[in-house]
Amino acid sequence: MIGAILQTSFRSLRRDRGAFMMSFILPIGFFTIFGFVFGSMRGSSTPRVTVLVVDEDHTGSSRALVTGLLREPSLDAMTHPRATKEDSSPADYTAATAEAAVRSGYAPAALIIPAGFGAHPIAFGPNSGSGAQRPTFEILHDSADPVAAQVVAGMLQKTVMTALPATMATMGSQYFDREVGGLTPQQRKQMDEGLAQLRQQQQQDAQQSAGAQHGQAASSADDQSGMVAVHVRDVVGEKKKSPMISYYAAGVGVMFLMFTASAAGGSLLDESESGALDRVLSARVTMTTLLAGKLIYCALLAFAQLTLMFLWAALVFHLDFFSHIPGFMVMTAITSFAVASFGMLLASVARTRGQLGAFSTLIILTMSALGGSMFPKFIMSDTMIKVGYFTFNSWAIEGYQKIFWRDQPIRSLGPEAAVLITTGVVLFVLARWFARKWEYV
Amino acid sequence: MSADLDKPVGVRPEALPLRVDGVVKRFGAVTAVAGVSFEIQPGGCFGLLGPNGAGKSTLIRSIVGRVRLDAGSVRVFGHPVNSAPARGDLGWVPQELAVYPLLTCRENLQAFGKYQGLRGKPLDDAIAWCLEWAALEDRAGSPVKTLSGGMKRRLNMAAGLIHRPRLVLLDEPTVGVDPQSRNRIFEMVEALRRSGTTIIYTTHYMEEAERLCDWIAIIDHGQIIAQATKETLVAQSFGSRSSVTMHFGATRVDLAAWAAARGGTAQDSVVLCSVEKPAEIADWLDAANREGLEVLDVTLQRPNLESVFLHLTGKELRA
């Protein structure tokens, strides 16, 4: 008896592609995505922190430090913007341009190597020798990425130790002289010879890397205890609540928007199965009109859903919603349109409600995982972030962050608007093409 | 009603409610409709009957413009079936309950009225008429899912007539309803016919066709194999003869041979034959008595549509 029940169940499962997909393909797909995001990855897949490096010192020591930062594998350090067709050799960052770049979201952090670093490069604590004179490094930080400043600060301390061997030895020798009473002439001579070799090596390294385009940054709050003193300054969102509020209002909102759009689009399948669709199409309604009507309905529903989500964020999490309403309206309108088109396409491709459910769950959860709706982008690798740009979630989150986090003007939403509107139009055209199956037999 | 039989002389093409001309529809290697042609004259009720798989559903979908034809044409009051005037003149009541289950009766009628281009007072009037015609005034505000099966059927019909079309196609409107609701639907159809609306009616219930339809067309294998008034169809198939069914008790006589010798047929212990006059039954009873056959039961029946259908298609209508 049990055998018959098992046989019936397995046969049904095998013939229900939707259930089969949900049972096996979806979990494996998700495991793979989470594995890529959180698992141990190597090479280019390793998450790296982008940092803009500004050298205000222009000494051998600062150049050696920049070289070390450019070589640091956990950092994607840049001393100047990437070359473009319009500007094949962009100028190095200054403190002002680096800060502007961080504000615009180009990088989560910038590191300013202060003038005077060469003269007083390191100290063994604030109270040791030149500790009082050493200049303070500044990290300009976008706190939307809470990890970046700490990584940059840590890497700065490490690089100072590994990239400036001669400086370290010199300062160590001075510290030894001061604390222990000095070396004998013989010891001093040997020490000076060794230091000369180290300095030569340090300079060669710096020269080899001159003109390289990557650099680095530093830590949280003021840190005077390391080899170099570091001050972290939030240049974005310094007066705001958690950046994750607008991030997840958009991220979670878009994810559920897609489910809503898919379900709303699914009404076409319901109407097809009940015969209502035939009746509607035999009246004075064309397929294009019907699809357009459904699209507008889906978009309005999505708009209302996102508005509610952000109002809730304002009410409960004190998101500054009311001073960003124009930008919110623009982003919400284009996001709703794109997502509604996506729902129409899913519904027109699917043949049954069950198929639609399986399809949409698989695609929406995958897009949400890749696009940043489930976990923040700053923990993703570069590769994953690039893949994420094939999702609505990523573009929508980026746009909302521009409005709510960076306080950028509406015109800054150009790329997001272009991508989402174009995608929406393309998906709707595709949906119309697939919907021909309902027009005639 | 058919072109061949009773077409009034001088009817202008634009006055013909429906003209189906050489319609062919194939699905791959299967020809569902194989060159069907007929016309329907204004007024009255045209019954379209056919066994399952005969091509009836495809023909109906062709008439309402939901099929891309391989050949032929369908015109409603002289207009191509998918033209705006044709859509306005044709009302379709599909076999399925093609209404929105979460909306109320009034909201459904409102929606389908708007799909037909009605707005404002004309729409309100149409809704009021539909609710009255379908006897659903008391349930106008009830969601469809709370209605009985019969009420849903009536609403389904009303939704197809919201724009007051001159030609209405009712596709098995009584499927799955109780006898009381069926009678109510018959009354609705009869009221519609009295108002001058031309009706195309399909059904699997022969008694419905006999009661409601003035004209009958029978479709089989994708072709119209007969079309005429009910009486004409019976006369064409059986002349004036009546059918006789005789049940016999157990016997060693070869009933098949015995019946065949007298122009009848036999299956198991039942013999079927036909007689011109009821008195001829006495000859059969005498013959049976001579052979020592025990007659248990004899039934004399005038041929009806069911008999015609069986005679022409070899199948029961509800098989």
Lay out the secondary structure.
The complex is a heterodimer of chains A (441) and B (319).
Chain A: H1 2-15, H2 17-38, E1 49-55, H3 60-71, E2 75-78, H4 95-103, E3 109-113, E4 136-142, H5 148-163, H6 165-180, H7 185-208, E5 222-223, E6 229-236, H8 244-265, H9 267-274, H10 276-282, H11 287-317, H12 325-349, H13 353-371, H14 382-388, H15 392-404, H16 414-434, H17 436-439
Parallel strand pairs in A: 1-2, 1-3, 4-6
Antiparallel strand pairs in A: 3-4, 5-6
Helix pairs in contact in A: 2-13, 3-5, 3-7, 6-7, 8-11, 8-12, 8-13, 8-15, 11-12, 12-15, 12-16, 13-14, 13-15, 15-16
Chain B: H1 3-6, E1 18-27, E2 30-40, E3 45-49, H2 56-63, E4 71-76, E5 79-80, H3 84-89, E6 90-93, H4 105-115, H5 120-133, H6 149-160, E7 167-171, H7 179-194, E8 198-202, H8 206-212, E9 215-220, E10 223-229, H9 230-238, E11 242-248, H10 255-260, E12 265-267, E13 270-275, H11 281-291, E14 295-301, H12 305-313
Parallel strand pairs in B: 3-8, 3-9, 6-7, 7-8
Antiparallel strand pairs in B: 1-2, 1-4, 4-5, 9-10, 11-13, 11-14, 12-13
3D structure, described in words:
- With 441 residues, chain A is of the alpha/beta class.
- Chain A has helices spanning 2-15, 17-38, 60-71, 95-103, 148-163, 165-180, 185-208, 244-265, 267-274, 276-282, 287-317, 325-349, 353-371, 382-388, 392-404, 414-434, 436-439; strands at 49-55, 75-78, 109-113, 136-142, 222-223, 229-236.
- Chain A has a six-stranded mixed β-sheet with strand order 2-1-3-4-6-5, sandwiched between helices.
- In chain A, α3 links the parallel β1 and β2 (75-78).
- Residues 40-44 and 211-220 of chain A have low confidence and may be disordered.
- Chain B is of the alpha/beta class and 319 residues long.
- Chain B has twelve helices and 14 strands.
- In chain B, β9 and β10 (223-229) form a beta hairpin.
- Residues 1-9 of chain B have low confidence and may be disordered.
- In chain B, the strands form three sheets. In chain B, strands 6-7-8-3-9-10 form a six-stranded mixed β-sheet.
- The two termini of chain B are 28 Å apart.
- Chain B has helices at 3-6, 56-63, 84-89, 105-115, 120-133, 149-160, 179-194, 206-212, 230-238, 255-260, 281-291, 305-313, and strands spanning 18-27, 30-40, 45-49, 71-76, 79-80, 90-93, 167-171, 198-202, 215-220, 223-229, 242-248, 265-267, 270-275, 295-301.
